[in-house]
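Minutes, methods subgroup
Present: GH (chair), OT, SY

1. OT presented the first of two proteins processed in the latest run. Sequence and structure tokens recorded below as shown on screen.
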Amino acid sequence: MEGAVKKPIKVSIKDLATYPEVYIDSMPITNHLRQWRHTLLNVKCVSLKSILDKVIIDAPSPKDLSRYYLEFIASDNYTIVFSWNEVFNSPTGKHIFLLTEKDARKINEQSDRISMIVSTDFATGRRYLKGLKYIIIKKAD
């Protein structure tokens, strides 16, 4: 994580193994029309919030946090944006996960490496990001 933070942190695949895992039996992936595309089976994942809780945003006051947003950028430059409030001040934040295993394959055996998903989205494919490379925290103008 980099950007508007007091100290950037780097989380590797090896680091993810140190966080508590959540197990999800199956997760359907749907497109923007909510049409089924495929299903992820035997998903093990880490709550993104458990990682972000270690990040200190460089904000002058807590009141300013509502002006911050997080960009999640994949290796192919696909980008997903969340507001600070969406991650830290709503139920959505509790359902953003980094996948450590899916379809009985560990993260280091997968071509898309670190993937991110929001398990409570209606159209899950919209925020199913494969190959997460960076998380950048920025302040809106």
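2. SY then presented the second protein from the same run.
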Amino acid sequence: MNNNKSTLLSLIAVGVLSCSAAHAAVTSAEAEKLKTELTPMGGERAGNADGSIPAWTGGQKDPLPAGKLNRPPLFNADEKALLKIDSSNVEKYKDKLSDGEQALLKNIPGYTINVYPTHRTALAPEHTYERVFKNATTTKMDDRELISDWNGSIPFPIPKSGSEAMANTQFAFRGIDVQTVSSVYVVSGSAPVLATSTVAQESMPGDYPPGREDPFKGQTRYAVLVETKAPAYQAGEKILGLIDKQLNAVAQAWTYLPGQRRLRRTPNVQYDVPSPFTSGVTNYDEQNGFQGSIDRYDWKVVGKKELYVPYNNNNFLNASGLDQVLKPNSANSDLMRWELHRTWVIEGTLKAGQRHVVPKRRVYVDEDSWQILLADHWDAKGSFWKATQILTYVNPTVPGMIVATNFVYNIQSKSYAAFNVLSGEKDGYTYREIPAATFSPRSLEASGVR
């Protein structure tokens, strides 16, 4: 695709996405583009004009070397960085940097961005692509942001509004069933402080393979059970969440407290409620760039932009030793890989009459997967507040591009929180079918033994 055609696609996208939030699905002719000029997820198959972004040819399908607990080393581990961005040259490259990354480069001593050649490794199972293709002509969102005729996975591969584009980020493929053993740390200019160590089990019914029964009857985006292993005074606590497909619904959640041997409904596990997993340093909806209901914001697509984003960070996950991964001022940027990718830039402003400690936020979304890679947050005074980075890694055996460690940097307090840190030899990811009974309140209560 030549540069003019690529630009035209982006302009059409911005023009269409400024339409009303109430609309029908796309036509069959439009949907056919998902098999030709667009990727199965709605990105542009072609590379960019100068070749620095290659064409998408199906993602990373070739096997990778064996890695510990499903953390395979990356195929291009020996590549050299094309350039290094730091405080001395940030102005030169600011057009390809998010506001948050510019703030980090200017405010965090020693912070750098190492840019490597771009590899479009994102992929998902074929049955997921088939459902996304079907969604293009069936799934609809009304003016209350209620979704109907959804077939599973990404609902709007060719979005017609900012709300639809933002909805896609909440359905992004993260594997079908996965168990993650990891920790959360808070860092404020000194050694990392452990907030929690957990075992999380997640299941995404919308991506179940054909023939596997969906016990949630098409109403659940994902089910999650998190058990706390440390610190000791929280050991054995469990939180169960059933996340509705509707993006204006409060998640159903339950907490099991072993000291009381009681199961309780958890009133609110989203929006700006402080997260217990970071000892309240971050809010529930800050993990993974944005997480939860989208109904408190007016969303618009600013456009598509070529940006340096964290990508293909398999090697970061295989780093040894917490002191190597987390430094006093930031994560170890020498271990992190950045690449030039096209991103959807989606901005949310707080609706009239709604309340949230973040009245304005912006997310930068990978065009090949709908995964948020970066997120920026502003406070009530209009000052820049927080920058989020989401590291992903590719695993062809799943197959998929999987969300891994992510960081929330508080520019104002000069601190950061690190989620899903794989610091121990037993930390990592296990992909296997998880019984549906795991995600029932009755099963949670019966399993609670300290």
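Chair's summary of item 2: Residues 3-447 form a domain with the outer membrane lipoprotein receptor (LolB), chain A fold (CATH 2.50.20.10).
Next meeting: continue with the remaining queue.
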